[in-house]
Amino acid sequence: MLIYDPEQKPNASEWLALGEHVRIDLAYRFHKAARIKAPNEKAHAVFHAIIENQIAENIETIVRAVSRLQMEGLSRHDALHAIASVMAEHLHEVMATENSSSIPNESYFAAVERLTAKGWLNG
Predict the structure, then answer these.
(1) How far apart are CA 121 and CA 30, in angstroms?
(2) Domain ends where: 28, 58, 88?
């Protein structure tokens, strides 16, 4: 896999066979080539890689959310961004909590389940 396009679901086994730094670099290069600006382009690419990893690992909540958000009108790329925004909020909460182990992934998954295209677009 030499090209990443967030509108196309990568082959899971090929994606997961890549090193994490390669996955991040592929997402970074896509955004550079497409001239898509982000406040922190490297962090943006990291979030893309994380969400694609979750999809490739077939984490049901994330797979369902991508499908649901697309059915609600988002492009696949925007669906990834919407889920990544939930992850960013979750990570912020984890980092702000003294005992981060007290915030389980279930709260992240529950927030992803509540996520809607309309809510993300209006947020």
Answers:
(1) 23
(2) 58
Structure tokens at 24: 């991040």
- pLDDT, tens only, 67-96: 999 999 999 999 999 999 999 998 888 888
Among candidate residues 54, 77, 79, the one with its CA nearest the CA of residue 69 = 79
Cα gap 29→33, rounded to integer Å: 6
> What is the span of the domain harbouring residue 75?
60-123
DSSP state of 9: P
pLDDT per position as a tens digit, 23-57: 999 999 999 998 988 888 999 999 999 999 999 99
Residues 28 and 53 in one domain: yes
Eight-class DSSP state of 69:
H
Half-sphere exposure of 18 (CA within 13 A, CB side): 22
- 17 and 71 co-located in one domain: no
Q: Is the four-CA dihedral 56, 62, 67, 72 of positive or negative sign?
A: negative
- 42 and 97 inside one domain: no
